Amino acid sequence: MAKAPVLTPQAEDFPRWYQDVINKAELADNGPVRGTMVIRPYGYALWERMQAEVDRRIKDAGAQNAYFPLFIPESYLKREADHVEGFSPELAVVTHAGGQELAEPFVVRPTSETVIGEFMAKWVQSHRDLPLLLNQWANVVRWELRPRVFLRTTEFLWQEGHTVHATYEDARVYAERILHDVYEDFMVNVLAMPVLVGRKTAKERFAGAINTTTCEAMMGDGKALQMGTSHELGQNFAKAFNIQYTDADGVLQHGWTTSWGVSTRMMGGLIMAHGDDAGLRVPPRLAAVQCVVLALRDEGGVVERARQLADELKAAGVRVELDVKTEVSFGRRATSWELKGVPVRLELGPRDLAEDNVTMVQRIAGTKEPVALGGIAATVAASLDAQQEHLLAEATERRDARTAEVATLDEAAEAAATGWAIVPWSVVGDEGEAKLADSKLTVRCLRRADGTVPASPDEPDLVAIIGRSY
Predict the structure, then answer these.
(1) 1 confidence band (pLDDT: 50, 70, 90)
(2) At 463, is the secondary structure helix, strand, or coil?
(3) Shortest CA distance to 253 belongs to which of 181, 184, 186, 164?
(4) Is residue 296 within 8 Å of 326, Cβ to Cβ?
(5) Which residues contact 348 (CB under 8 A, 6 or more apart)?
(6) Which of 2, 156, 245, 331 is 20 to 30 A from 98 (CA-CA)?
């Protein structure tokens, strides 16, 4: 009898495969309240790596980290009409505390434009205080009707940046810098995900924003995932919260604000963009564990040599895990690391040791071969670099192969059944966007023909990226 697969094959049931990977790779569990999640240590280690890489880029862009309250007075949200209308269906509202009904209800943070705006108004007085560039790492709550771990959960983790500038142009340039220098750079060069950057349509932009730009990634089943967004908020929040400054001529002016964020949704994107029927495949630059040294048996000095090997790799800067749980079968341990997507596995047994070799398994390249123990740190480093490039090239090739340039809405709908469609925005427009929505298709973003982000949705010759989304 054939052995049952560890995971549901992607081609058979992609959503079930996704859930299988989360469970079998020990990434997360469902929480006790509907729509919440418990992130397990291996999953959280990946999130910490994402945090570190994104946080470094945010700080390079000049922003500083701060923290603001989880609870926000309901009246704050009501000051910006479009904002509260956009978030009303998702709000969790607290009406009782301490055994008593509250005089004013407060909401559990869905995003922080309002509360941060309140304090920006206190902290900004003069043009010398600008720009004010803030970021916070926090949890937020949005009441999801159809939750899915990492992709859409009632509570999730994220970073949210909030800035105030003296001019529209300065705010626009900074929001664009975040999109490209922080998000796109991280997603392409660390996550190995070839995201498309573009401008959201008026229907799809953030509530209260004058412009939303986005990073869109194609998943393994051809659907689109919004990986991160950067918003120009104009003066909407500045006027609602009296964020004003005195300019160089002594004239009182309203500031121009931005907000931008990425979340644990990137974990879902990582799984669906790179995973295969054997489990997760983690880009080496992201991996919390880049290499696992696995001792096959506790005999002939194998365990001690495995420890020395792990120490040698650590000294060379490789993030390495030592597996000497020889009481557990080799096959079970190898399968577990395969599921977790560790880029390099070094398997050491008595025969390898006798030949001064170690068996190197490359998870992304899909190879298994003996390599010399001498110079192993350089061998592993070269493998990590090559596999990072391989993963990005593979994802790019898949995206390009499943993206079709079409001329009509009907052709766009047909192409989006298995991937993405690129269609002239003049063919779509507001009416076409509504028609696509009836077929559960969305305009993921608008782009210029050369792939750059348009300054206005009214520019001529723009193209729309059409797809099904998560």
Answers:
(1) very low
(2) strand
(3) 164
(4) yes
(5) 293, 294, 295, 296, 302, 305, 306, 309, 358, 359
(6) 156
Does the pLDDT at position 83 exceed 70? no
Q: Which tens digit of pLDDT belongs to each residue from 269-299? A: 999 999 999 999 999 999 999 999 999 999 9
pTM over 0.85: yes
Task: List pLDDT tens digits, range 119-132.
Answer: 999 999 999 999 99
Angstrom distance (rounded) from CA 361 to CA 353: 16
The DSSP symbol for 179 reads I
**Cross-strand pairs, 371:** 358
| 129: helix, strand or coil | helix
Coil/strand/helix, residue 258: strand
Structure tokens at 113: 């434009």
| β-bridge pairing 132-141 and 64-65 | parallel
Q: How many C-beta atoms lie closer than 10 Å to residue 433's C-beta?
A: 20
- Contact indicator for 292, 323 with CB cutoff of 8 Å: yes
**Adjacent-strand bridge partners of 320:** 291
- Tokens of residue 405, six digits: 């340039």
Tokens linked to 160: 């949210």
Within a 13 Å sphere around the CA of 188, how many CA atoms are in the beta-carbon half?
A: 14
In the numeric block, which tokens belong to residue 181?
């220098």
Place of tokens 């520019």: 459
> Sheet harboring 256-263: ordered strands across?
64-65, 132-141, 155-165, 256-263, 224-232, 211-218, 196-199, 442-447, 463-467, 420-424, 403-405
Report the C-alpha gap between 140 and 434 in whole angstroms: 30
- Pull the structure tokens for residue 112: 């922080």
- Three-class DSSP labels, 315-343: HCCCCEEEECCCCCCHHHHHHHHHHHCCC
- Tokens of residue 116, six digits: 């941060």
